[in-house]
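Folding Problem: From Residues to Backbone Shape
Fields: amino acid sequence; protein backbone structure tokens
RECORD BEGINS BELOW THIS LINE
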Amino acid sequence: MIILTKKLTFSPNNKPNLTIFLTAEERLKIKHTISIKESNNQDIKLLKLNLNRGNILKSGDILTNDKEDFFVEIQAKSEVVITVKSNSKLSLLKAAYHLGNRHVSLEIGEDYLRFSPDYVLESMIVKLGLNIHQEITPFFPEVGAYKH
């Protein structure tokens, strides 16, 4: 088992030995074990994340162990999401307000909103007059004002 304890910025000296793809929810967990099945055989590699409190994993982050001799690159995994689009920025702002009022993890783009599938929320957004569609893409929800 490889225990990853530090987050580094990329440099040529810490070229990744491995790249792992994590969902938005998995990127929030700083203490958990991940099983990686090697593509060329049946071996399973165990990675344990044991990062300090307050860390949030972002796509492109590099993690390492205490010896700094093994490097893992984090990438965002594509997942099923609901994307909300509208020609009206005011309509998107109102939708963001209502979703935020329900404490939904929300990705906010210039011309779209994105959240995890939930038929009740989807129905609410449609009733507000917005267009929604389901897609599979990396999800980057806002992490909150205190995590920046």
In short: Residues 89-100 form the longest helix (12 residues).
